[in-house]
Amino acid sequence: MNQYARLLIEAGPLAAFFIANSQAGIMIGTAVFMVATSISVLISWRFERKVPVMPVVGAGFVLLFGGLTLWLQDDLFIKIKPTLVNLLFAAVLFTAHLTRRNVLKHVLGSVLNLSDAGWRTLAIRWAWFFLLLAALNEVVWRTMTTDAWVNFKVFGIMPLTLLFSALQAPLILRHQVPEEPPAEKSSSAS
């Protein structure tokens, strides 16, 4: 699947959430977000024929906290979901770093080929970024209206993530390991 299709599949549920919230409120928006997230994971699986780890974890949180939001009719649960997801990702990356394992290499190793030092630095940077997103989400949902929080979730978190990703390009280029060319087949003389 190309990058644009992947971005559309990942951003689609957020767009659906934003539109449904603006038209019918946070409860309908949450229900639409849950359905759209589930569909996006299924589409991703259909095209890639593997379970995408990060989207599945995110979908699990959307279904859990969205379900609590609808069941208890309390938007607190959908608002704290980004905080908890980002704290989970940060904790996984920090723990992996302390135990000298690189989860990020496992997740992105098919896309990037970096030195071990590059993977470690990239993982730590992402861990700190996830902590920043968790803190920002807490500030926004506690100090602004629900509609302002939805706007931040849709138009703040995604652009910040894309910007942060782009800012990692120098690190990635500096630590990129050239792929080895495939071994040439030796022709045997008969």
UniProtKB/TrEMBL annotation:
**Signal peptide region:** none
**Record organism:** Azospirillum formosense
Q: What is this protein called?
A: Inner membrane-spanning protein YciB
Concerning its family, UniProt says: Belongs to the YciB family.
Membrane-topology annotation of the record:
Multi-pass membrane protein
Q: Does the keyword Cytoplasm apply?
A: no
What the entry lists under PANTHER family is as follows: INNER MEMBRANE-SPANNING PROTEIN YCIB, INTRACELLULAR SEPTATION PROTEIN A-RELATED
Question: Which keywords are on file for this protein?
Answer: Cell inner membrane, Cell membrane, Membrane, Transmembrane, Transmembrane helix
Q: What does this protein do?
A: Plays a role in cell envelope biogenesis, maintenance of cell envelope integrity and membrane homeostasis.
Chief place of localization:
membrane
Q: Where in the cell is it found?
A: Cell inner membrane
Q: Which domain of life is it from?
A: Bacteria
State which residue ranges cross the membrane: 24-47, 53-72, 123-140, 152-173
